[in-house]
Design goal:
112 strands; 1554 residues; 36% strand; nine-stranded mixed sheet; globular; 22 helices; mainly beta
């Protein structure tokens, strides 16, 4: 039987992105030195590093502090500079840093990876609390964002705001094996492991018999002090054994990255890229916030000096990276500019520098290096310090802190410490050890402990027996161990020793030298011993208030004991500690510390952990709500399980979630433990809900307040609930909430303790209903856990007693006052996941307001009432309709209210006194008098009436609600739980005493709908305002139901041959790798199987589902996405768990990643194969790219799954077998969201990268055809089963995720009568002939159908001698700029011929002649139009219509405007691409819409490909070009795009080409 170790880690791509372990080719791509830049640019500057606690660049750390634990110092990075010019302001800062020993890099210091970095200050992320900052010009600023030297603070003269950081920040974190691409995990001190799959021989490869291996490696140190691993592996080329060496420069036994799969070896955390994203209509750029560039840090980070770091001098310093390979090198300065540029250009003009530098907004001088490296470091002196020296004697070893030391170097006296172990009475089989601290290199050691009588009486011999109950630990790797516990219950002596070796072993400090296994007696025995030995047993209390009794374990006095050497009795020394020269240093260089076994003697801790089932409040009929089990006062745990029960009354009001019971329960955030199992199958029978997390080898820390598990339910309608209440009057309790709302409570309870039958493999076992394993995997459920029931509470009325209030502030100001803030105040707020509102400024108020200097884009922002991200603010209509819209997108977690704070704030200025008085008189504005007798005018600010306004969702106009108030369960309670109070701007004017009543006249104009020839045209409602008159118009459109009558059809079909021509925009490209003839077919295997096949629970042989490729190409990598439908997911088990997916034999890529471990969640299986620095050749003309080893359950399960999913039993006549077919299909092409930190990237489902340098061109859409597969499971036929017979196999072929159907298509349209809005249009009888043999239907992810190919339309009207006109499309879609006044080029859109073969393409016309005319006619932010072709003035209504996409150049967000946000959008796209992610500008659902956004964003090359390929890529230059265009126009300069990008004048195909 083949055996494989369980895979340690199977990252999904989203997790990989979050951890950012990136290949060297894309490490920290920033900006290249432009060819037109000839000297160092920008303003002269230096970087300065300081220790923030001492404000100096020298830090002293005592040896005692380092010996006691890790020492952390906060390092500040400053920019020392004068202010930068406005036309060359700081736009980007890229930083790299490292640590060295003995000297800086510049002075020959060697990189030190034992010191590591944490907690980088990301200035783009909010802090949990706001702080008030004193500003240099007087006044204060309150903000939750970190303050730093380039913070874009708005305002002056005491009025400040900082609503957004206006910056994009990128930081880098785990080490990945460079041969197999597997994450490298901790495996004990100086040991790591990773898992991979491979073929052991050619025979295994031919038989597709793969092996899986968990490679365990010792971490060694090379001559340069760099940790590395080396191991043998089987080459997948010739199956010879080869040796790999992989450096792990950031390895340390004391520092790992916590992941769901365990502790991972870190990569660098020493990079910071800051990019200014700008503000709409602001041309000022960045400047130093406090005037002095050194007044605030630019960023900060922690340097950690690990415990045990030897005395020495260390340097934390900024550094650069080599243009050749990205390796660390000394910081480049201004003097290095020319040589650095030469080095970069020698590597190719597309190579992007990975240096430390500042980038400024001047295109010709954007790359700026510091003047000197002299201030860019902090010197850290540990202990006595001293420069690093090299010793010529002694061996070099790797110590616990991961650096190199010389053998014999003293760094604290070695200590052997017997553990202080804490256990419960009756606890069995626990381990206790002797730990090593400050150990030395040793060739042998031995020791003797003793158990006092009092301790012997409470111990019980382990079930292992004394012969095996003591063994070697991991502190030393010395063979020849001898252990003797035979006297444990007589003299109490415990002897151990390791025979001297000819070579020494290095110490693993913190590990055990030896371990022992014991059990302790029951509580009664322990109480008896405590009473018998009152002076020997000490009583204590732990940190949690638990009482224990301490039983000592001691070191024996020094001396000898009789022992045997061969057949002779000798005196055996009780202690030895041989150094690397086999000299015994026990008496001079060793400290012994006693230990103890501490037995808890009370069972009730001060605070027990609580598992609380949530009390959930919902409305009748509410669907898909979540409720959880909340953790309180949790402990560290390696595993847990529980069982809840739904009483009958609760079951009757629940409705199964649309997710189904298989996925309606899942893990929460309380613990990060893998192996979750959830079972809700009995919810509507016994009511039991079972969940558990399999025990892990490492514990997870608790996230108190989070859910352990969550469930998704829906509740029945009100009538059903009322019926259940009547049926169970004693079980359903009535209650009233804090708002006076009545609800009925349906209990959800914990099941009684006990067991239930469960399965372990093929055996029925008793499954415990509860377990709670502590960090030592001891079950403390009965002693340390309290269970609290919960409930589902259903409201049966809708009116709360006390409502939340949103109050617009009553603001008092002076005439002419500038830049004042006013807000919307929250009163009696509720927990909320999102909210939105709409205010309105009446006309009189609009006339006295002056737009803030901040501009409308930033003059409204979030207040402090809620901490909800995703704020959207729109003041664009403030001086037209007066509407002010704001909203916070719904979040998955709620925010608690800060009552009395503002929800939103606005910044305004008011007009001068003369204007205020004039407007007040014109509109009869009311006056008031304050408590001091001052008179003021009252200009109202009101809440808008409830309703909707048009808004955009992608490319669709939608109705946007004016109000929403989502409670913590994301239910909108705006109409039931919210009161709105208007506010005012009150302007003091002391010489006015009269009050005039506000006069308002409202006139409503009825909208008119006119319909002609079945076309509905709705006129826009207009608003007319005269003095003291407000006119409101409500648009009302009534459209009668359209009726279509189709008469008998006459059809003539003539066969033609379809042809399709394609045109593409002219682009400048690099040399692209040629593609072979034909297509590459990616096919999923079609496999037959029997029940029980596969490794899990059945056959010993693998059952592989292959993913094959024919006609492959030399490639940099590929990725694919497969969909397992519900039936297949329920059937298939993974033979080797997460490691069941492995790379096939077609390519020898260096990296393989998949999300197979989570595919059962949504059925999507995603895989990535990636080459190293060069593209990989395929091994054959066809082969397997990826294999998935599966297992099939027994026949009863197969039949049950088939029946549950409605599968039909089929018969194969050739094989003479019955079977069920379980499909495995390719996903549609598109993207999937992939979270990264706080951002969401979009991952492409498919890519096939060719060998075009440097990283391949994606040819998937053009070159790949997809074929689905299946798993057919042979079963026996039941007598009553109905079957279908399969005589032949039908194969569906999908090209690039597009379904293609080939058939003769005949379309006939006869007499049609259409009635709309009481208008009847009758079209005379029309005979239509459609000639087509290859109509192609493409279905996108949103079920949009586009027809292309030789679909042709024939009309009898207006043609010469009644000849037919055949029309075919030559492009799926075409893209244009909104200002393109060139006539549409028919040949780019379609081909038209007469029945006699005459080409009449140029005779086709369209309703609009140019893209500019069509864009203006549509009047949208962008337009997507299918244009009807005309011939001889007659519309060819049934002909295929060319689809055109038109937008504004530079409008990346497709919102109809070019602004700073578009520049940021492109900047973010570029940053994600540079980080190896797969960004999109749109939601990724409409490929053509993505192409439009890309076309509008690609300023310099105007690519219509919709993605980065070759030289056509969205870059920093595109973002800068948009920024410059916006800035110029905001400054009043009427710039055109060629003024910003002169190269457009020579760009072939551009509308600006000359």
């Amino acid at each position: 039987m083949k055996k494989r170790s369980k895979k340690v880690l199977a990252f999904g791509v989203a997790a990989l992105m979050a951890l950012s372990s990136l290949p060297a080719s894309i490490l920290t791509a920033t900006a290249a030195i432009g060819a037109n830049q000839t000297a160092n640019g920008g303003t002269s500057y230096n970087f300065v590093l300081k220790d923030m606690a001492t404000d100096s660049n020298t830090v002293e750390v005592s040896s005692d502090d380092v010996a006691a634990g890790n020492v952390t110092r906060r390092i500040g990075v400053y920019i020392d500079s004068e202010e930068w010019a406005r036309d060359a302001f700081i736009q980007m800062v890229s930083l790299n840093w490292t640590a060295t020993t003995g000297a800086t890099l510049e002075n020959g210091g060697k990189e030190n990876t034992s010191l590591y970095f944490e907690n980088i200050l990301d200035v783009s992320q909010k802090n949990s609390k706001s702080e008030t900052i004193a500003m240099p010009g007087g006044g204060t600023l309150k903000t939750a964002y970190p303050m730093y030297c380039l913070a874009k603070v708005l305002g002056a003269g005491g009025k400040y705001k900082y609503p957004d950081p206006y910056a994009l920040v990128t930081t880098r974190q785990i080490a990945v094996d460079k041969v197999f691409g597997s994450a490298i995990m901790d495996n004990g001190a100086n040991k790591v492991k990773f898992t991979y799959a491979y073929y052991a021989s050619q025979a295994d490869k031919d038989a597709k018999n793969r092996s899986s291996k968990t490679q365990e490696c010792d971490v060694q140190t090379n001559e340069n002090g760099v940790p590395y691993i080396t191991y043998d592996y089987v080459s997948q080329d010739d199956f010879s054994t080869k040796t790999a060496t992989v450096e792990l420069p950031y390895y340390s036994v004391n520092h790992f990255v916590d992941t769901q799969a365990g502790k991972a070896v870190p990569d660098a955390n020493n990079f910071y890229l800051w990019q200014y994203k700008g503000i709409q209509n602001d041309t000022s750029g960045t400047s130093f916030t406090f005037g002095d560039s050194m007044a605030k840090t630019f960023t900060e980070f922690d340097v950690v000096i690990p415990q045990g770091t030897p005395d020495g001098t260390y340097y934390v310093q900024l550094c650069s990276r080599s243009p050749e390979d990205g390796s660390i090198e000394a910081l480049s300065t201004a003097a290095d500019f020319s040589s650095l540029k030469d080095r970069q250009q020698a590597m190719g003009t597309k190579l992007e520098d990975r240096s430390t530098f500042i980038g400024c907004s001047s295109q010709s001088a954007s790359y700026c290096l510091p003047q000197s490296a002299d201030t860019a470091y902090v010197k850290i002196v540990v202990g006595e310090g001293g420069e690093e020296t090299t010793t010529t004697t002694g061996a070099t070893t790797t110590t616990a802190w991961g650096t190199t030391t010389t053998a014999g170097e003293e760094d604290g006296k070695p200590t052997w410490k017997i553990e202080d172990k804490f256990v419960e009475p009756g606890e069995e089989e626990f381990d206790i050890g002797v730990s090593l601290q400050n150990g030395i290199n040793s060739t042998g050691l031995q020791g003797t402990m003793v158990l006092p009588e009092v301790t012997r009486k409470i111990l019980v011999e382990s079930a292992f027996g004394v012969a095996t109950a003591m063994g070697a630990g991991d502190a030393y790797d010395i063979s020849g161990g001898q252990f003797n516990m035979n006297e444990w219950n007589t003299t109490g002596r415990l002897y151990w020793g390791f025979a001297a070796s000819t070579t020494y072993s290095t110490p693993n400090n913190g590990e055990n030298i030896v371990t022992m296994t014991w059990s302790v007696a029951d509580k009664a025995t322990i109480e008896k011993v405590v009473a018998e030995y009152p002076n020997d047993v000490k009583k204590g209390t732990d940190a949690n208030g638990k009482t224990y009794y301490s039983f000592p374990i001691k070191w024996e006095e020094d001396g000898t004991d009789p022992g045997m050497s061969g057949d002779k009795q000798v005196d055996r020394a009780r202690y030895k500690y041989l150094d690397e020269d086999s000299q015994d240093v026990y008496k001079t260089n060793l400290t012994l510390k006693d230990g103890s076994i501490n037995v808890y003697m009370d069972e009730v801790s001060t605070d027990k952990t609580t598992w609380k089932i949530e009390d959930k409040f919902v409305e009748p009929g509410e669907e898909e709500f979540d409720m959880g089990v909340i953790l309180k006062d949790g402990i560290n745990s390696t595993g847990l399980q529980g069982t809840m029960v739904l009483p009958e009354e609760t079951r009757k009001i629940l409705v199964e979630s649309a997710f189904g019971v298989a996925t309606a329960m899942g893990a929460g955030e309380a613990y990060d433990i893998s192996g979750g199992q959830f079972n809700m199958n009995e919810w509507n029978t016994t009511g039991r809900l079972y969940w558990g997390f399999a025990a892990s080898t490492t514990y997870s820390t608790p996230n108190n307040g989070e859910n352990i598990v969550t469930m998704t339910w829906s509740v029945a309608d009100k009538a059903t609930i009322e019926k259940v209440i009547a049926e169970y009057p004693n079980d359903v309790k009535k209650g009233t909430d804090a708002n006076g709302k009545t609800y009925y409570s349906f209990p959800v309870k914990w099941e009684e303790d006990g067991t239930d039958p469960g399965m372990s493999g093929d055996k029925v076992v008793d499954r415990a209903r509860y377990k709670y394993l502590n960090e030592d995997s001891q079950d403390v459920y009965k002693t340390a856990l309290a269970l609290e029931d919960g409930s589902i509470n259903i409201y049966m009325d809708e009116t709360p007693t006390d409502k939340t209030t949103w109050k617009i502030e009553d603001k008092f100001v002076e005439a002419g006052e500038e830049e004042f803030d006013m807000g919307v105040i929250l009163k009696d707020g509720i927990n909320s996941t999102g909210l939105q509102g709409t205010m309105v400024l009446p006309e009189e108020t609009r006339k006295i307001l002056v737009e803030s200097a901040f501009g409308v884009a930033t003059a409204m922002g979030a207040g402090e009432a809620y901490d909800i991200s995703g704020g959207q603010f729109n003041m664009n209509e403030w001086n037209t309709t007066g509407r002010l819209y704001w909203g916070f997108a719904a979040s998955t977690t709620y925010s608690t209210p800060n009552n009395g704070e503002n929800i939103v704030t606005m910044t305004w200025s008011v007009a001068d006194m003369a204007t205020v008085k004039s407007v007040a008189q014109q509109y009869g504005v009311k006056t008031g008098t304050d408590e001091n007798g001052r008179t003021y005018y009252i200009f109202p600010v009101k809440w808008e009436e409830d309703g909707t306004d048009p808004g955009m969702s992608g490319d669709k106009v939608v109705d946007r609600a004016r109000y929403k108030y989502l409670n913590e369960d994301s239910q909108d309670v705006y109409k039931t739980a919210l009161a709105l109070e208007d506010g005012s701007i009150n302007i003091y004017v002391d010489d006015v005493t009269t009050t005039t009543t506000e006069a308002t006249t409202t006139t409503t104009t009825k909208a008119t709908t006119t319909t002609t020839e079945a076309t509905t045209t709705t006129t826009k409602a207009t608003t007319t305002t005269t003095e003291a008159t407000t006119t409101t118009t409500k648009a009302t459109t009534t459209t009668a139901e359209a009726t279509t009558t189709t008469a008998e059809k006459t059809t003539t079909a003539e066969k033609t041959t379809a042809s399709t021509a394609a045109t593409t925009a002219a682009t400048t490209t690099t040399t692209q790798a040629p593609l072979p003839a034909g297509k590459s077919v990616w096919s999923i295997g079609k496999i037959w199987a029997n029940p029980g096949d596969g490794y899990v629970g059945g056959s010993v042989e693998d059952l592989d589902l292959p993913f094959n490729i024919s006609n492959p190409i030399k490639s940099y990598g590929l990725q694919g996405t497969v969909v397992f439908d519900k039936a297949t997911r329920e059937l298939v088990e993974l033979a080797w768990g997460d490691a069941s997916a492995s790379m096939g034999d077609l390519y020898n890529f260096s990296t393989f990643l998949s999300n197979l471990g989570s595919y059962k969640t949504d059925g999507k299986f995603f895989y990535v194969l990636q080459a190293g620095l060069t593209a990989e050749n395929p091994a054959a003309s066809e082969g397997t790219a990826v294999n998935v080893s599966i297992a099939i359950p027994d026949e009863a399960t197969v039949k049950s799954v088939a029946a549950e999913n409605g599968l039909t039993l089929q018969y194969d006549a050739e094989k003479n077998v019955y079977y069920y077919e379980f499909p495995v299909k390719w996903s549609e092409d598109g993207t999937d969201p992939a979270p990264s930190g706080s951002q969401t990237a979009y991952r492409k489902r498919f890519q096939y990268l060719d060998s075009t340098d440097p990283e391949g061109r994606n040819v998937f859409s053009d070159y790949v055809t997809l074929e689905d597969g299946w798993i057919r499971v042979i079963v026996s036929k039941d007598a009553e089963t109905t079957t279908s017979t399969t005589e032949a196999t039908t194969t569906t072929t999908t090209t690039a995720a597009t379904t293609t159907t080939t058939a003769e298509v005949t379309t006939t349209t006869a007499e049609v009568t259409t009635t709309t809005a009481e208008v009847t249009t009758t079209t005379a009888e029309v005979t239509t002939t459609t000639t087509a043999t290859s109509a192609t239907t493409t279905t996108s992810s949103e079920a949009t159908t586009t027809t292309s190919g030789e679909a042709t339309t024939t009309t009898t009207k207006g043609t010469e001698e009644d000849k037919t006109v055949s029309v075919s499309l030559v492009a799926d879609a075409s893209f244009y700029f909104s200002v393109d006044e060139r006539p549409f080029n028919n040949a780019d859109l379609l081909k038209a011929t007469l029945s006699d073969g005459s080409d009449v393409t140029n005779d086709i016309t369209f309703e609009c002649k140019t893209p500019a005319e069509l864009y203006e006619k549509e009047g949208k932010a962008y337009c997507v139009v299918e244009m009807t072709p005309y011939y001889n003035g007659e519309a060819l209504a049934d002909a295929p219509k060319p689809k055109v996409y038109i937008g504004i150049k530079g409008d990346a967000q497709l919102d109809g405007d070019v602004d700073m946000d578009d520049s940021f959008e492109v900047l973010q796209y570029y940053s994600y691409s540079a980080a190896g992610r797969f960004p999109t500008l749109t939601d990724g659902k409409d490929a053509n819409l993505e192409k439009l956004a890309y076309f509008l964003s690609d300023i310099d090359t105007e690519s219509k490909l919709g993605k980065n390929e070759g030289d056509t890529a969205l870059s920093m230059d595109d973002a800068f070009n948009i920024l410059q265009y916006v800035s110029y126009r905001a400054a009043g300069r009427n710039m055109t795009w060629p003024d910003v990008v002169p190269s457009l004048k020579t760009l072939k195909g551009s509308i600006w080409a000359e």
